[in-house]
Design brief:
The structure holds 2 protein chains of 2 kinds.
Chain A: E1 8-13, H1 17-28, E2 34-39, H2 42-49, E3 63-66, H3 75-84, E4 93-97, H4 102-110, E5 115-118, H5 123-140
Parallel strand pairs in A: 1-2, 1-3, 3-4, 4-5
Helix pairs in contact in A: 1-5, 2-3
Chain B: H1 25-43, H2 53-74, H3 82-99, H4 106-123, H5 128-148, H6 155-246, H7 252-283, E1 289-292, H8 293-311, E2 314-317, E3 323-326, H9 328-344, E4 353-361, E5 364-371, H10 394-397, H11 403-413, E6 418-423, E7 427-435
Parallel strand pairs in B: 2-4
Antiparallel strand pairs in B: 1-3, 4-5, 5-7, 6-7
Chain lengths: ~150, ~450
């Protein structure tokens, strides 16, 4: 059964307030109604995704925007954990990183990231990229049933 | 086998008495032969009234053998051990004694040989004065033996024994000196080889340390430039956002100051990303693959098209460059950087023309990129490949001063060299070679 998607729930895993702000700017002009949730580190992200205490109020998510450069375990570990989780395994994950290192890109895809996007240096380009992600994942792509 | 160490001792330190002075060689080579003759004469059946064929043949055989030993001492194969050289003549003497047993000297002959054996062996490893001492001791031994043994045939055997002792003593001296010299050369070679091995080990260790420190540095450059990107991105993005949101509220000075911030961040970012690329060229472990140079050049020109059009420049090149083994992305970067450089430093008073030519150069391929830009003084020809070396103010021409350093690194990674040639006001020529194996 496919639930009618009224609101797209997006989890942004990002510790840099600047990037959070830039991402918010990108989503500000979204056509569809979406809600951006914020996890400042990997542990919080996993708790929110699993609706664990103190994040029981979190909705099931439709999309994860994952930064790699996180405090603690790091983005790769979060990605691995999501993919190994029985309920979260099909959740689309977009890696949004400032690293253009080949090894980060390869490892992300190896861990089954749905796509890897490099954060542009230019503000306008950044907003465009976030907008494109939002457009593609909420309008063009068909998402799996929420976990 | 060292044929002639004398005269060529050169830088090698000489051991005290072991290495003979130059021109000693002939004497050393001649001595054993001389002794062989003397010994042969001494052992000829002098005291016998009859000279029969077997004795004569054996005496001649002995001469030949001793001569052989003399030769062997001189041109001893490396595998012939020292003890063999020493033992062989001794065993031969044993044989002779047995042969002479018919004359009645059996007992004394055996005794003499048994007595001689330790001395003879000892000779091998002693110094010269000791050899003289041992020779003297043998004399005494033989003389004593002759005196105390009443059943000893008085004159004949005693004379034979004495002669034998003299001959063996002197021959041993020759053997000893020869062997001593060889040993000292051998020891010298061993020392040298050990020193060389130690030097090689030291070099390898130093090389390891260098490689490690190089890797650390690369890693440092990589991490620091990577981590620097992040805050710079923030500065740039938010000054842009600030300008967008609050630009209207600012006066001209405020806009100008904010412009400096954005501009500075942008430049720092370019620098950091160039540094990152420079360090990546060095750390790349991507294996080489077959690359069509013509394709790479076409892609580079594609990348530069907006700049080329903007500058109103013409790029001339004839296809025909070969396929080589390389890293396509790096080779593209090489062309982009050099052609980009030509575009950046173009002359304003004439249409820019960039000519790219390739030609085989032995087992390499030489590529020349010539422009009619502002050129440079040739005294800076090497300096421009160094990092952060700029010949012009950045406000005039832009650029980070890393581009050509990256080019040099890429060319070196592809087994080639890069050089530049300039003439102020006329243009610059960049020439690089690439290994053209496929």
């Amino acid at each position: 059964m496919i639930a009618p998607i009224s609101t797209i729930e997006i989890l942004l895993v990002e510790d840099n307030p600047g990037d959070v702000r830039l991402t918010q700017e990108g989503f500000a002009h979204a056509k569809l109604h979406n809600r951006l949730w914020l996890a400042p580190d990997g542990e919080a992200a996993m708790r929110m995704l699993r609706h664990e205490e103190p994040h029981e109020e979190c909705p099931p998510f439709d999309l994860v925007l994952l930064d790699l450069n996180l405090p603690g375990a790091g983005g790769m570990e979060v990605l691995r954990e999501i993919r190994e989780d029985e309920d979260l395994g099909t959740l689309p994950v977009v890696v949004l990183s400032s690293s253009d290192a080949e090894r980060d890109i390869i490892l992300s895809y190896r861990l089954h990231a749905n796509c890897y996007v490099i954060k542009p240096a230019d503000f306008h380009a950044f907003v465009d990229v976030v907008h494109a992600i939002e457009q593609f994942w909420t309008t063009t792509a068909r998402l799996p049933t929420r976990a | 086998m060292i044929e002639s160490s004398h005269g060529t001792t050169g830088s090698r330190p000489t051991a005290d008495d072991a290495v003979p002075p130059p021109n000693d060689g002939v004497l050393y080579r001649g001595l054993p032969f001389l002794f062989a003759v003397v010994l042969g004469l001494a052992l000829l059946p002098i005291q016998d009234t009859t000279v029969d064929a077997p004795k004569l043949v054996l005496s001649l055989a002995m001469l030949a053998t001793l001569f052989g030993v003399a030769l062997a001492l001189d041109r001893r194969p490396a595998r012939m051990p020292d003890w063999f050289v020493v033992l062989f003549p001794y065993l031969f003497l044993v044989a002779i004694t047995i042969l002479r047993s018919g004359t009645g000297g059996t007992q004394s002959g055996y005794a003499a040989l048994l007595f001689l054996a330790p001395f003879y062996v000892a000779l091998y490893d002693r110094r010269r004065w000791q050899v003289v001492g041992v020779t003297f001791a043998m004399f005494v031994a033989f003389a004593f033996q002759g005196l105390v043994q009443t059943d000893f045939e008085s004159a004949g055997p005693l004379r034979g024994a004495l002669l034998t002792a003299v001959v063996i003593g002197t021959m041993s001296l020759a053997v000893h000196r020869k062997v001593g010299r060889l040993r000292s050369i051998d020891a010298e070679l061993r020392r040298e080889s050990a020193a060389r091995a130690a030097a090689i080990r030291e070099l390898a260790a130093a090389n390891d340390a260098l490689e490690r420190s190089n890797r650390d540095l690369e890693q440092f450059a990589y991490v620091s430039s990577h981590d620097l990107q992040e805050p710079l991105r923030m500065i740039r993005s938010f000054s842009q956002l600030f300008m967008q949101r609050h630009g209207d509220a600012m006066n001209d000075e405020g806009k100008e100051l904010l412009g400096f911030i954005t501009d500075g961040a942008e430049r720092a970012q370019r620098l950091v990303s160039d540094l990152l690329e420079f360090s990546r060229v060095g750390t790349s472990t991507k294996p080489f693959e077959p690359v069509e140079l013509d394709d790479v050049l076409a892609r580079a020109i594609d990348v530069l098209t907006p700049t080329v059009e903007n500058a109103g420049a013409t790029i001339l090149h004839e296809p025909g460059m070969p396929r080589i083994q390389g890293d396509p992305a790096q080779l593209e970067r090489l062309f982009v950087n050099i052609i980009g450089n030509a575009l950046r430093y173009r002359a304003t008073d004439r249409a820019t023309e960039i000519r790219i030519e390739g030609r085989p150069d032995g087992d390499r391929w030489e590529v020349t990129i010539r422009d009619n830009g502002i050129g440079f003084d040739n005294e800076h020809a090497e300096r421009i490949f160094k990092m952060f070396q700029r010949l012009h103010g950045r406000d005039e021409y832009g650029g980070t001063g890393i581009g050509l350093a990256i080019c040099e690194r890429i060319v070196e990674r592809h087994g080639g060299h890069i050089r530049a040639n300039g003439e102020p006001g006329v243009g610059s020529t960049f020439t690089f070679t690439l290994e053209s194996r496929t």
